[in-house]
Design goal:
The protein is mainly α and 427 residues long. The chain has 17 helices and no strands. The longest helix has 32 residues, at 141-172. Helices cover 77% and strands 0% of the residues. The protein has helices spanning 18-38, 45-52, 56-59, 61-80, 86-104, 110-138, 141-172, 175-196, 210-221, 224-251, 260-265, 270-287, 289-306, 312-340, 345-374, 376-396, 409-419. The termini are far apart. Helix 1 (18-38) runs parallel beside helix 7.
Length: 427
């Protein structure tokens, strides 16, 4: 008989302790910094285009190469991230990326700007890939929800505030001032993270088996359910990034001619995204992901169609519906991957975000070619076609769901554990 005294004590950080508050503040700053930097160029693409005399699709490469960099970094992280200290990896990523963001404000050649953004994305992946892992390892399960919510809140506020700040400063001064100021802010956040957050007590770097991880990737890619969710994630973010890449071009032209102060306010639609994510989580808990996913994707299409209107209120309504639906779709797909990655779950999560950011890069630029050549209406219909493919996946993915038989207790335990752990990233 095992006595209570013989049970290993869980000494991970608990809620309301001094260590928890330090980790919570630091992890919030890491999410804030990461997404402020990743998409800061997105709302100022018209200014980039005028500065370098390039078209919208070409200017979008500043965003696409950032996400190419983060996708490449996530792939490398899946193979080698466990060889480095969690805290040091995140701190290094935040400081180095912010230095690159500041340097980008001095660039005079567009190809150099693209290269800096790709390298910045690679460094940012060091934060994005291990932040949730650090939380799960260091925080007691009773406080994991609070810590996770602070990280995700930092992500969301960072993505929203970075776009708003960049739009306003570019309108008042220039895009170079916007990049420089955001870079300096994020450098301070990186230093605060490094000084504030304690080193890992429940993880020691070790030499990972890259070949084993590559084989695990192959296993996941042969699973039709997981592969369908990976593809869906890429198409979903690609559509979302496409809208926000070229929204400024649309709203600064006829019939709207919005000033930059009003244009910046459009990014408050991220608040609708938070509502969409929370709603999707609640609905999938009540009705299952298989039933909820197609309905959410249908709202993606509705939002896109409303953005064809010439009326500002209808366009804003469509943008709100589309944004909420994107976050809802992402939340649901994340949950499905978490629930059905029965082995090598960290590798499966890395693949999910690899497809996620690869889709952002590919669709984010290719859709710009369509808009530049054919205009906003054809651009929207092209994205509707992408969303129809997402809807097809959302309707048919349930055919590939395989639940554990229940005869393997270890596998059932893995499933229960995976259901309680979110993937933890947003835009």
């Amino acid at each position: 008989m095992i006595k209570d005294s013989d049970t290993p004590k869980d000494n991970r950080v608990k809620r309301d302790s001094k260590e928890f508050n330090k980790i919570a503040r630091g992890i919030f700053l890491s999410g804030l910094s990461c997404f402020m930097q990743l998409y800061l160029f997105q709302p100022i693409l018209p200014s980039i285009g005028r500065e370098f005399s390039i078209n919208p699709a070409e200017s979008s490469l500043t965003v696409s190469f950032s996400t190419i960099g983060i996708a490449a970094g996530l792939f490398a992280g899946a193979l080698f991230a466990d060889r480095l200290s969690r805290k040091h990896l995140i701190g290094l990523a935040l400081v180095c990326s912010s230095v690159l963001t500041v340097l980008s404000s001095f660039v005079t050649l567009f190809p150099v700007l693209i290269c800096i953004n790709m390298l910045k994305g690679f460094f940012l992946s060091g934060s994005a890939s291990v932040a949730m892992t650090y939380i799960a390892e260091e925080i007691h399960p009773s406080a994991l929800g609070k810590a996770t919510s602070l990280y995700i809140t930092g992500n969301a506020i960072g993505g929203m505030s970075g776009r708003i700040i960049a739009t306003l400063i570019t309108g008042w001064l220039s895009w170079r001032w916007a990049a420089g100021i955001i870079g300096i802010l994020c450098f301070i956040f990186g230093l605060l993270f490094t000084m504030e957050v304690p080193s890992s007590k429940h993880f020691k770097p070790y030499r990972t088996d890259a070949i084993k991880n590559l084989k695990a990737m192959g296993t996941h890619l042969r699973n039709p359910l997981l592969l369908s969710m990976y593809i869906l994630a890429g198409l979903n973010l690609g559509s979302f990034v496409s809208i926000y890449n070229y929204l400024a071009f649309r709203m600064q032209s006829a019939p709207f001619f919005l000033p930059h102060e009003i244009l910046a306010a459009l990014y408050l639609m991220y608040l609708a995204g938070s509502a969409g994510s929370i709603t999707a989580g609640a609905l999938t808990d009540k009705f299952s992901s298989q039933k909820v996913m197609p309905a959410i994707v249908a709202f993606l299409l509705l939002g896109l169609l409303l953005m064809l209107a010439q009326n500002l209120i209808l366009v804003m309504l469509g943008l709100g519906i589309f944004t909420a639906s994107f976050f809802g779709t992402h939340t649901t797909a994340s949950k499905i991957v978490a629930q059905h990655s029965f082995t090598a779950r960290p590798v499966s999560i890395s693949l999910f975000f690899l497809f996620y950011y690869a889709g952002s890069s590919l669709l984010g630029t290719s859709s710009g070619v369509i808009m530049h050549q054919f205009g906003w209406t054809v651009f929207i219909f092209a994205l509707c076609a992408v969303c129809m493919l997402i809807l097809f996946i959302a309707v048919f993915f349930r055919r590939w769901i395989k639940k554990p038989t229940g005869t393997d207790p270890a596998l059932s335990q893995k499933l229960r554990a995976s259901e309680s752990l979110p993937l933890g990233q947003t835009e």
